[in-house]
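Homework help board

Subject: predicted structure for assignment chain

Our instructor gave us this sequence and asked us to write out the predicted structure in token form, then describe one feature. I got the tokens but I'm not sure how to describe them. Can anyone check?
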Amino acid sequence: MKHFLGILLKGAVTFGLVALFLTQVDWQEILITAQTVQMAYLFLAVLMFVLSNLLGAVQWRALLGLQDIVLPFRQVVTLYFVGVFFNNFMVGNVGGDAIRVYDLNRLTGRGISGFAATFLDRFIGLFILSCLSVLAFSFSPQLWQSALILPILGLGAGLCAVLCFGFSGRLSDVLVRLCRRFLPDKISSFVSDIRDCFQMYRRAYGVLVRVGLLACCVQLSRVGVYFTVGLALGQSVSFVHYLTFIPLIAIVAAVPISFGGIGVRENMGAWLFGQVGMEPAVALTMMFFGYLAGIVASLMGGIMFVARRSSASAGREAV
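My token output:
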């Protein structure tokens, strides 16, 4: 009975999140623009997102391995898909990452190590995506304007600061000392533990190179999702422009002001792609269908979340 109630509760949560998403969409404008959509391209976009999730699971597993967290690949894929599913709906797009860390702690008791690996997994993805954006931006002189230059430079500076904390022993020591001096002991200890976990990656050159290559494939696939959706809507905007804009849109959509970035993502996309001649209604529809492709591709995670046994002992048995 308890197991049945757990499944029922999880099913209600999953259904509620999808329903919340559907109620926040301006369907009238999207339906008008979507009348000419080519469904084959949308199907391809979903497959590309599924592929990016599988590659992302491989990337995350490699980072977990350096923290001596070893799980069967099938279970890593399950945890990853569940996390991606919830990322689609949570405020700030990081709720799924928190669920991944929680599951790792439940299964292995290694919450801090799991947090470090998951944080680095997300950070490497953002770093690679931002590098691709800067590279693409450098080949698009028609976009060189302060409204775009400043956000891109700010994004790069912020990611470099996090990179320095994680991999520079001296700079991270300074930050840890400042935390111990001005912050409560629990917070400063947490920051110190995270720094120690990050230091384990400093000389794992082979793994970092492999993870970096995987991250390139993951991020190019996810940018390709929106490019493919653009083709489905009959757009001929260069892939270079998608590489430039999608990282900025992803960062803005991650700001915790709406569930799953709904509304923020679409309006940001309409403004940016409007710079290269895309009609606002088309850009809005493209961003929506790209997001919808991600939801469809991660629905497997919602099903896995509902179906899996919820007790910690069951998780340990699976390991």
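Reply (TA_rk): Your tokens look well-formed. For the description, you could write something like this. Residues 2-318 form one domain. That's the kind of observation they're looking for.
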